[in-house]
């Protein structure tokens, strides 16, 4: 086998490799066969080696350029992802700040509502107590647990000031009256 063919086989070209290598292999074999046909001159063998070296350098340069473009694409993708990460972290921080603020407001309102509920219960109990006292005092039949006559009561309205008509109304209280 000639040294050129052994060089081609040693460089890793196989029939089952990619299309690029197949094309290169075909070109290399055609050069070898042309060289074998012109085996008269030893200078053409050197030309063949130079041609193969030149093709090898072109292929290596092409591979380097492809690898450089690939690294640049990867770096751009990484930079884009880092920028997106920064934006998402800023959004996350803003959302957490809003959640904390709203939670603080909610807890504050909940505490205020609890105080207001307790005041409503206390005021309702006071109102019921006062209405009970008024009902007891305004009942014409009962005074200190003893029945009295109506005639005595009508003549002694000035003695029982709670039996006046304007005092017979129930007391209505709203929460606005008792602000602290």
UniProtKB/TrEMBL annotation:
<dbReference type="InterPro" id="IPR045314">
    <property type="entry name" value="bZIP_plant_GBF1"/>
</dbReference>
<dbReference type="InterPro" id="IPR004827">
    <property type="entry name" value="bZIP"/>
</dbReference>
<feature type="compositionally biased region" description="Basic and acidic residues">
    <location>
        <begin position="53"/>
        <end position="68"/>
    </location>
</feature>
<keyword id="KW-0805">Transcription regulation</keyword>
<dbReference type="GO" id="GO:0000976">
    <property type="term" value="F:transcription cis-regulatory region binding"/>
</dbReference>
<keyword id="KW-0539">Nucleus</keyword>
<dbReference type="GO" id="GO:0003700">
    <property type="term" value="F:DNA-binding transcription factor activity"/>
</dbReference>
<dbReference type="GO" id="GO:0045893">
    <property type="term" value="P:positive regulation of DNA-templated transcription"/>
</dbReference>
<protein>
    <recommendedName>
        <fullName>BZIP domain-containing protein</fullName>
    </recommendedName>
</protein>
<keyword id="KW-0238">DNA-binding</keyword>
<dbReference type="InterPro" id="IPR046347">
    <property type="entry name" value="bZIP_sf"/>
</dbReference>
<dbReference type="GO" id="GO:0005634">
    <property type="term" value="C:nucleus"/>
</dbReference>
<feature type="domain" description="BZIP">
    <location>
        <begin position="53"/>
        <end position="116"/>
    </location>
</feature>
<dbReference type="Pfam" id="PF00170">
    <property type="entry name" value="bZIP_1"/>
</dbReference>
<feature type="region of interest" description="Disordered">
    <location>
        <begin position="53"/>
        <end position="75"/>
    </location>
</feature>
<keyword id="KW-0804">Transcription</keyword>
<dbReference type="GO" id="GO:0046982">
    <property type="term" value="F:protein heterodimerization activity"/>
</dbReference>
């Amino acid at each position: 086998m000639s040294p050129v063919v052994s060089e081609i086989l040693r460089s890793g070209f196989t029939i089952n490799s990619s299309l690029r290598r197949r094309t290169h292999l075909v070109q290399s074999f055609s050069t070898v066969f042309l060289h074998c046909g012109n085996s008269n001159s030893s200078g053409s063998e050197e030309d063949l080696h130079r041609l193969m070296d030149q093709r090898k350098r072109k292929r290596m340069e092409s591979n380097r350029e492809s690898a450089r473009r690939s690294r640049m694409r990867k770096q751009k993708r990484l930079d884009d992802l880092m920028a997106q990460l920064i934006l998402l972290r800023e959004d996350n921080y803003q959302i957490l700040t809003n959640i904390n603020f709203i939670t603080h407001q909610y807890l504050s309102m909940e505490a205020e509502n609890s105080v207001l509920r307790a005041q409503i219960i206390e005021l309702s109990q006071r109102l019921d107590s006062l209405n009970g006292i008024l009902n007891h005092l305004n009942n014409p039949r009962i005074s200190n647990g003893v029945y009295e006559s109506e005639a005595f009561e009508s003549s002694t309205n000035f003695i029982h000031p709670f039996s006046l008509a304007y005092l017979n109304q129930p007391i209505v209280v709203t929460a606005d009256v008792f602000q602290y």
